[in-house]
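Quick one - inputs below.
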Amino acid sequence: MKGFDFEEERLKQEIARLGAKRVLLQLPEGLKPEAPRLAKIIEKTGALPIVSADPCYGACDLATSEAESLAVDLIIHFGHAKLLKHEKVPTLYLETRSTATVDCAVEASLALLTRYSKIGLATTVQHVQTLDTVREILVRAGKIVVIGDAGRISYPGQVVGCDFSNVKSIAQEVDAFLFVGGGKFHALGVALATSKPTVVADPYDKTAYSVDQEVQKILKQRWASIEEAGRAKIFGVLISLKPGQKHFDEAVKIKDIIEKMGKTAFLFETREILPETLIEFLTVDAYVNTACPRISLDDASKFRKPVLTVNEFMVVSGESSWDDLLNKGLFEN
Amino acid sequence: MKGFDFEEERLKQEIARLGAKRVLLQLPEGLKPEAPRLAKIIEKTGALPIVSADPCYGACDLATSEAESLAVDLIIHFGHAKLLKHEKVPTLYLETRSTATVDCAVEASLALLTRYSKIGLATTVQHVQTLDTVREILVRAGKIVVIGDAGRISYPGQVVGCDFSNVKSIAQEVDAFLFVGGGKFHALGVALATSKPTVVADPYDKTAYSVDQEVQKILKQRWASIEEAGRAKIFGVLISLKPGQKHFDEAVKIKDIIEKMGKTAFLFETREILPETLIEFLTVDAYVNTACPRISLDDASKFRKPVLTVNEFMVVSGESSWDDLLNKGLFEN
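Output:
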């Protein structure tokens, strides 16, 4: 796969340095086709590579229980920066930086940023190394550029699907955000977390576009889901077992709150929150999702019942209002 | 849900007797809608119920790692008889017997059994209590009835998706099998494992039908998959982490055999073997499945690449022939 740095030399060196004998490879969906090639490189070091074929959507989803079950001595996690404070199994994060140049996409974004003078930058770990270039292009075009660093994740300006602390930390200072990266997922997160106009500069397609209309659609949809959940009598509270998504105590607290509201609540544990999983529980009217909050927001149309984030549930329970929610964020801690 | 015995009284008594404080409920897909009602019963005992929402296709798929992760002190597994020799977490199996009467379906099956005089019986745990009645009806119709007991699973005459030892043990003595139960899944297993004509008596629909045509389709399809895998250069060897489906050492052995054949092999671990999981690995030509062998046989049309059982792979490797395979069984140990 061209366009990404898989750090093959570092991979070999780290396996040798750690003396790993059995290695679990984990890659996000877009990078999975590279797994056999990388496994072959690992095999040549003398270690036995095992590829995790399961879906992987973030470093929250580290395959530690799989690694323990297979007596693996090293996890190699591609495509995400470290997120968990501690790993139960030694883990090497290979961030898989993109080698795509950003100039054309950022130049294209200028036409969409004419109304704004102070621009906040956001990107994923794949493109953090480009932020200086992005800043230069914007400054040359007369913009004031701000890059946030709240200190919670690995790099200034970086966002991950559920952590937008870096952009939130500068939201008051800027007129709009420019997100550098592919796809709408992270850009929508920036816009939802900050309520600021957000433009995508896509280095893969060399294009730029706004996500503001889509954000409005999501907000309307979330409002409808919260309304519908307000009428629910029976709730399911969803618990994930993924290391960075497991919030058991929070789930039990939410169950208690629901019961104090005179309603019924059940705890459901699940590895993947899928429409076909929830469809089995016909009597449940609405769900509260203590796992990855982005499933609630981005996959809403696939679910037959409302699947609220914890923050959204607080509106249903009366502990928060819609306005509070917009200020605090639909899904962030 | 009418028609099944969920043993609610025994459920309460066992929770009290074991002093369980946190309980994980696991039900197969067809019974999942009952989970909230059963959780409510458990809650009234003072224990905290958590429902496993993930797919569950057998007692091989016991949610022990989920139970450990959630510090659960009792798993209640509905719908299957005990299969594992030891459980890492205390487990109560509630077999969820069907209360459907079998008379009408068995009477209907007689028209399909006229050519056969010696009939072997097979059923799932849901209907094992009906086998005496089934025998009586067949004997009254002039048949000789045989019920196999190879001692490997819980009840004489019982089959589970991957263990047909009870019917195999009597296959030489009978002309045909009568399977009592719903759906084609187990009946196809009986026919594939024994190469005998197999008729289903479905107590839910009160109907009877033969699966012999479908068996021929499966055999043709398997032959085509084996042929295609024979031309493969790159293999994936699939490893499951489910307690009754984990065969890591076998997977490594198969990888070695493939490499001795001058071909390439990669190990893949996965929780669920799904078409969308395997589709990511574009360069892999064929898979060998060391997990649930029924996925290879019953879901073949959903996969783009051949997914062989271990027994089928032995034909590709030359250790076995198609005739041996038919004698030994496509998938059984």
